[in-house]
């Protein structure tokens, strides 16, 4: 009885814990996790998580980031695919290809990227199926 509850609780805690890559640490390769990330070191590779990734001021990612949300204070180069919000702080430097739902940029951030906002595309596609009728005013005839 008690062991079942502990197993369930431990599994829940694993998903809510934050992974951290400290300053001075370099990781080369792909990372897949169910937890959030805080990166102060360097990642040369791809990161995939359903959570949030924070790249601190000393952090660097060179690769692909696929997550729900990201806050960037450091440097990112590569392909950034977020299902929700990208927040760029004033010290952020982003280069590459970006696909997001929402974008927030502070003054001073460097953003040299192609950017597609998925929310905007959805709204445009919804409107594409609707038909709009424009009526012109009838001309007056004077005799």
Automatic annotation (TrEMBL):
<dbReference type="Pfam" id="PF04519">
    <property type="entry name" value="Bactofilin"/>
</dbReference>
<comment type="similarity">
    <text>Belongs to the bactofilin family.</text>
</comment>
<protein>
    <submittedName>
        <fullName>Cytoskeletal protein CcmA (Bactofilin family)</fullName>
    </submittedName>
</protein>
<dbReference type="InterPro" id="IPR007607">
    <property type="entry name" value="BacA/B"/>
</dbReference>
